Amino acid sequence: METPPAAFVACLECDLLHRRTPLPPGGEARCKRCGARLYRAAPADANERALALALTACILFIVANAYPIVGLDVQGVRNSATLFGAVESLWDDEARAVAVLVFVTTILVPAAELIGLTWVLLALRQGERGYGAVPLLHFIESVKPWAMVEVFVLGVLVSLVKLAHIAIIEPGVALFSFGGLMLFIAAASAAFDPDAAWSQLEATQ
Amino acid sequence: MNAVPTAAGMGLLSCEVCRLVSRAPAPGGDAHCPRCGATLHARKPASLARTWSFLIAAMLLYVPANTLPIMDTSSLFGTQRDTIVSGVAFLWTSGSFVLAALVFFASVMVPLAKMIALAVLAGSVQVRSVRNRRTRTRLFRLVEFIGRWSMLDIYVVTILVALVQVNTLATIHAGPGAAAFGAVVVLTMFAAASFDPRLIWDMQEEGERP
Q1: Residues B64 and B138 in one domain
Q2: How far from each other are the two terminal CA atoms of chain A, in whole angstroms?
Q3: Among partner residues A17, A97, A98, which is closest to B6 by beta-carbon distance?
């Protein structure tokens, strides 16, 4: 076989081998046997956009964690909770496994993913390899399924409806920040072009 | 009919992290991606055995996850224990039909459907089925995408426990069902991640050979 292996792409879902061909702008290549996504024609500034979105998400993440998500007013008695405070209540309530699960999926993994992505994109923008860029990209890929900010936002909304029967609900700053964070994380990972990042990392090796 | 050109069939390995296709080294040694350094394997190692193990563990824990209370509410009027299903029933009877349907879907339907789907997928590979390969691949994609939404109830309990404390007339505590339910979600996610959809297509190729 004369063609170098790198000229091919294999479907991750059925292993069918395809030759990489240039796509029209905005185009997407799908596997001809099982229909899975192979690669897409990302705009040239895709990773610039991804960086801007990821930086915004970082700021929203800080706000979302610094302020209470929701306040409760029961006959003049007020109670409010930040996300970390909620994790602490679970921990103190002897529901430690659940506390760890919530901490990992809503704070630890999203933070690691955002910081890692921002770091790698910043380094690539400077035309550098950046310290730890390769393991970081690996890490981002492998932990992605465990970041569940969007599920958490829905969970907060459901709990608000449940509480609305017994108390006055005061949505906090962090509730809206989490809503925004959910959108910006999704937008950043949709804009991110891993193909370009990997070939750029290879070129600066 | 010639064999379908797959990476494995051509002696190539594709990286699951950066997707670079490279030539497989001589058998014996560990293969690493020349670009990103990830460990390469033609198929996920021990895919079926791992999928079944995680799946069976999830099925066992599904019982306590649904029978034990995920939440205790204590107030002046006594203690109320809520399981996942009774929480849905409460939402329904209090008039929040959309929300009740949503929670029912995320907490009852999704975990159950996911476990059945994974059992069907692993089972069909086990018996070397060559039928409906495209549909089964789609089913796997759906399982991967939808599984995370089962965490919904865990987050609902988290917020309720944090807000409804001693000074608010009632107190809400997380019940043992919550940990079991969380474990079911985590285990089914591991089961889905262990399953290699390429196995669905391997069977056909073997069948095609004379």
Answers
A1: yes
A2: 27
A3: A17
Indicate if A32 and A128 belong to the same structural domain: no
For the segment A172-193, what is each residue's pLDDT rounded down to a tens digit?
Answer: 999 999 999 999 999 999 999 9
Q: What angle do CA A175, B93, B115 make, to 5 degrees?
A: 70
Q: Which domain holds residue B12?
A: 1-42
Buried b (16+ CB within 10 A) or exposed e, A142-162: ebebbbbbbbbbbbbbbbbbb
CATH of the domain at B121: 1.20.140
E strand or H helix that includes residue A40: strand A37-40
Query: What are residue A158's DSSP bridge partners?
Result: none
Domain that includes residue A134, residue range: 44-203
What confidence tens digit (pLDDT) does each residue in B182-194 have? Answer: 999 999 999 999 9
**What share of chain B in percent tops pLDDT 90?**
52
**Domain match, A9 and A79 both:** no
> Is B120 within 8 Å of B83 (Cβ atoms)?
no
What's the pLDDT at A62? Answer: 97
Same domain? For A10 and A61 the reply is no
Same domain as A150, residue A82: yes
Residues of B in contact with A195 (CB under 8 A): 19
* Partner-chain residue, chosen from A5, A14, A33, that has the shortest CB–CB distance to B23: A5
